[in-house]
């Protein structure tokens, strides 16, 4: 099972709403478990680099199975794995990448970029929590 287009669009919309409420301009990307873009948005004034960073944050989650913030905490005491993971160009391990789950199963990932990384993380957390009331996110 993988995140579907309707779920992905709803998650993106919630992220955009949260960013607007915080006066932060972001790019948001939802990937399926194969690493393919299901939905994406870039707010006015946000550069294309942020869209790529959001995609790479989501790609890190798809490949590692946990949020980018959680992964950073997990590897913080291991310099070798930190160096290896930070040198992989297909992923970005800054906070703002969050898993999309159906119960415990990973079905996709959300990536947020454009604010300072704690803002990206908070916006992503809001987008995921807002959908937890009955949706598969």
List descriptors.
single chain, 137 residues, alpha+beta, 5 helices, 4 strands, 20% strand
Number of helix segments?
5
- The CATH topology is given as Beta-Lactamase
Order of helices and strands: HEEHHHEEH
Tell the overall outline: globular
Any idea what the radius of gyration is?
A: 14 Å
Describe the structure concisely for a colleague.
The protein is of the alpha+beta class and 137 residues long. The protein has helices spanning 5-21, 48-64, 68-75, 79-86, 117-130, and strands spanning 27-32, 37-42, 97-102, 105-113.
Q: Your description of this structure?
A:
The protein has 137 residues and is of the alpha+beta class. The protein is built from five helices and four strands; from the N terminus they run αββαααββα. It has one domain (5-130): Beta-Lactamase (2-Layer Sandwich). The longest helix is centred in the first third of the chain and has 17 residues, at 5-21. The chain starts with a helix and ends in a 7-residue tail after the last helix. It is globular. The protein has helices at 5-21, 48-64, 68-75, 79-86, 117-130, and strands spanning 27-32, 37-42, 97-102, 105-113. A four-stranded antiparallel beta sheet has the order 2-1-4-3. 47% of the residues lie in helices and 20% in strands.
